[in-house]
Write a structure and sequence with these properties.
The protein has 11 helices and 8 strands. The chain has an 8-stranded parallel barrel, surrounded by 6 helices. It has about 250 residues and is of the alpha/beta class. Bound molecules: phosphoenolpyruvate.
Length: about 250
């Protein structure tokens, strides 16, 4: 039985005031104990979110990290070692906005996964197809390619702490979620691909669904056999919606 996980990706949103308010509300809202809950604030707010949530069960992570490990000369970058130092537990890697808008390749994403794991943090690894790829019947091919790069470069034996997230690009921020059946098909394919390399990893790995998850569709999505929780964008900025989604994952 895999423990559900719900992660809130705050993206490039928030100000000192709004992040402070959201974090205080999260600290007070009732969340199910049977679900791992994680928030991913912008880098500059992580420190204060970690402080406010220090006595809660909510984990904190970053939305990205440098591909370079450790410390040193790389202007403007933030390393996994620094994220660990300020109290992060998680790092999101390979979000489609970074793959597409910032040109992150499958190989770069995989190298980042390795750095995250080597730094003692847990990666949430995003994969997913664009609309044109789905329309041309290439969804599973794309997702397998993204997944295979991680397995090849990191090695399945090192992926025990990794979480995977299937996020169809066309469903992100569009209000257009995949149907539970569409999502389940890809989640099952991801698990099957993992199983070809390691049955143990496939059984254990949590695979989250992301793409316009809302309180209204969360229960149905999370009810599918291979969906182990969600990666939530827009709805994670509203404490009532996010907590309702967390409760749906606990049902
Ligand atoms: C995301 O960006 O990871 C995401 C799933 O966004 P949204 O929930 O807003 O579609």
């Amino acid at each position: 039985m895999r423990r559900p996980l719900v992660a809130g990706n705050w993206k490039m949103n928030g100000t000192c005031a709004s992040v402070g308010e959201l974090t205080l509300s999260l600290n007070e809202v009732a969340l199910p104990e049977s679900v791992d809950v994680v928030v991913l604030p912008p880098y500059i707010y992580i420190d204060r979110v970690v402080s406010v949530l220090a006595n809660s069960l909510i984990g904190v992570g970053a939305q990205n990290c440098s591909v370079k490990p450790g410390f040193g000369a790389l202007t403007g970058e933030i390393s996994a070692a620094q994220l660990k130092d300020i109290g992060c537990d998680w790092v999101l890697v390979g979000h489609s906005e970074r793959r597409i808008e910032l040109g992150e390749s499958d190989e770069l994403v995989a190298e980042k996964v390795r750095v995250v794991l080597d730094s003692g943090l847990r990666p949430i690894i995003c994969v997913g197809e664009e609309l044109s790829e789905r329309q041309s019947g290439r969804t599973l091919e794309i997702v397998k390619r993204q997944l295979d790069a991680v397995m090849r470069i990191v090695g399945v034996e090192s992926l025990g702490e990794a979480v995977f997230a299937y996020e169809p690009v066309w469903a992100i921020g569009s209000g257009l979620s995949a149907t539970p059946e569409q999502a389940q098909e890809v989640h099952a394919a991801i698990r099957a691909r993992l199983a070809e390399n390691s049955k143990e990893l496939a059984e254990k790995a949590r695979i989250l669904y992301g793409g316009s998850v809302k309180p209204e569709n969360a229960l149905e999505l999370f009810g599918m056999a291979d969906i182990d929780g969600g990666l939530i964008g827009g709805a994670s900025l509203k404490v009532n919606d996010f907590s309702a989604i967390c409760r749906a994952a606990g049902n």
